[in-house]
Structure formats: C-alpha cells, structure tokens
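User: For a benchmark we're assembling, each entry needs the component sequences followed by a predicted structure for the full assembly. Here are entry 17's components. Please fill in the structure.
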Amino acid sequence: MNNADLFQSELATLEQALWIQGRNNASAAEYRDALGTLIVEFQRLMRETSRLIRHSDRAELETNRLNRQLQELAAQLEYRATHDALTGILNRAAIIERGTRLLADEAVALIVFDIDFFKRINDAHGHPAGDMVLRDLVACLGPVVTDGEHIGRVGGEEFTVLLPGHGAAQACALAEHIRACIERHPFAAPVGRSVTVSLGVSWNVAGSSFDAAYGRADEALYRAKRAGRNRVECAEEPPCGQHRQTSPNPPSPNPPFADS
Amino acid sequence: MQNLLIAASPNTPEIDFRFDQHLLSLQGESYPENAAAFYGPVLEALRGYLARTEDRPLTVNVSLSYFNSSSTKMLFTLFGVLDQAARDGRRITLNWFHEEEDDTIFEFGQELEEDFQALDFHDHPVRHRP
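Assistant: Structure for entry 17:
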C-alpha cells in the first residue's frame, strides 16, 4: 500500500492481462481465466463508474442550485446594503460613495433638500404617517429624477440628488421642478394636505470632494429655510443664474405649517 | 491485533477500528487531498484483521455526512473487501447512518445494499441535530 493509487486494483488486473497477452505459449484455459478476471473487474468498474456519475451529476445540480441561490442572496444583500429600506432609494452611505466616485471624474451638480416642518407631521399624525409622506414624496419624484441621476435619503427627512453632466442652471431648474412637484402633490389622509420642501443646489467641478460639494449645497439649503422655506437656493460659486435668488413661485399666503 | 484510531480532521473522517471488539466505525466528512493515501492504511489494517479473525461476527458503523468522488472510489473498495469476507462466510452487519433529510447519503446506502448483497445492511436515519 506504499504506492497509493486510486486505481491500484485495476492496475494490477491490467498488468496481469498484459502479461498473459505477452506470453505466446499460454493455454486456452489460462486465456479464459485471464479474460474472466478482466470481465469481473470490468463489470465492477462499470458499476462503480455509473454510481459515481450519478452522484457527481446530482452534486453538480445541487452546486448549481446553491450557486444561483448564492448569487441571488448576494444581489439582495448588495441591494439592502445600498438602499434605504423605507423608500427604496439609495441610502446615505451609497449616495456618498457614488457622489465621491462621480466627482473624481466629472463635474457634478448636487441638490440637497429637506421636508419643511417634517417634525410636525410626525407629532400630529404619528410616525407611520411621516413614513408614508417620505414614501409618497419619493414616489412622486420618480418621473422627475431620471436614469443617470441618483437620488438618496441621507437622513430622516433629508435627500440628495446627484446630477452628473448637468450645468448649474440645469440643476437649479430641476431643483425647482422637484419643489413644484412636491408642492402640487396631494398627500393622502391622515396628513391630507400638501407638503413642501426647501432645496439647496451646488455645482462642482471634477475633482471636488464630496464633503465640500455637499457642504455648499447644504449651506444653500439653510438659506432657503431662512428665506421662508418652499424654495430653491443655489450656492454662490459657481453662480446659478436666474434661480439664485428665490423660486419663481412665491410661498402661498397660507402655506402649510406656516405657524412655525 | 492493534486497534486503529485516526482522529477526524476537517477533511477526513474519524476512523475507529476496535478490532478487539469486532466493531469498526467511520464518522465525519471525507475529502482528503489524496484519498488513496488516506484509505490505503485503513484498508491494509482491515484486510489484516479479516485474515486473522475469520469466524467472528463484525459490526461496521458508517456515519459519513459528505464524501468526494475519490473517497467514494476508496469506499467502494472498502465495502468490496467487507462483502468478499461476508461471501466467504463471515457475518458482517453494516449500519448506515445518515441525516433524515439527506437523500444523497440515504440513496448511496441503498446502492451499497444493492451492490454488496452479502452484507447485512441496515439503514439508520438520524434526526438532524442543530
């Protein structure tokens, strides 16, 4: 058993058969014996081979099934790790990662927006109603924020949109479109009224850091809050053209939650 | 004759051949780097034991949860050796343990029963322990 080989017995049989074949004075009985041994070994080998093939086919099938399952689970895991469970859009980590990656190669406009007086919705109607507003709001942005643009939820009621390849004016126009869409959207009971958002926009050259891009948009957002909410403000540099001052639609005379 | 005890490793089963009690056990998983090298000494010990103690009834307990193809080839040889001894007149009981839900190992046992008819084969489904 020193020369360990899986086919030790088959090799011994083969050697014996070759030896008999090589003899030129073997009797018919000797040939018949050798043939008999070969037949027995051959039958055994066939039986074992067919068993092995069945097993490996079965194992292969199972492996393929598990591989598919693994791929599905990995995809699910990847999705869950990068998406916000409530709204289905990108989560904070994913939008930061994507923003950082995009900014390394190209100019990116960034919109940061926040629901006005969101706390009051939660306080008045409970957190499920607040969650519903978040979901509804994201759903109504579906047609506005298209493929190639990226929307993420970066905090409780705060969202970020990444706009690669957009100019500053184009980004401010989109921000205004978002603002108007949300203002027009009738939120269902128990909220039962319109909800508004304030938005800040920054336009950033390729190579900017995400933090700087976000910080400038966030500053603009706070200007929008201070200036009365439900409006778009654009970061000073680079200038954002006609949208810099206020939104074209002034806040309604009796805006929702105007009592704060 | 000296008993043979080989502790289990992550890819080889425990071999517990208590020749003095005529009780042989294989337990664990089997996918050694070189199945022939692993099972070679096991087969050698088994053949030696069978040659020396021809008239004693023997019990073999096998509880393998996984074995690869080269191990399967060596196991065929092992069961072939046992089957030949049984044909030569020895009483050999083969207890085949497998997890209740493991159809692959169960069916492998059924095939062993079919292929090695001199062995007194007993199937033992075991409830899965978490």
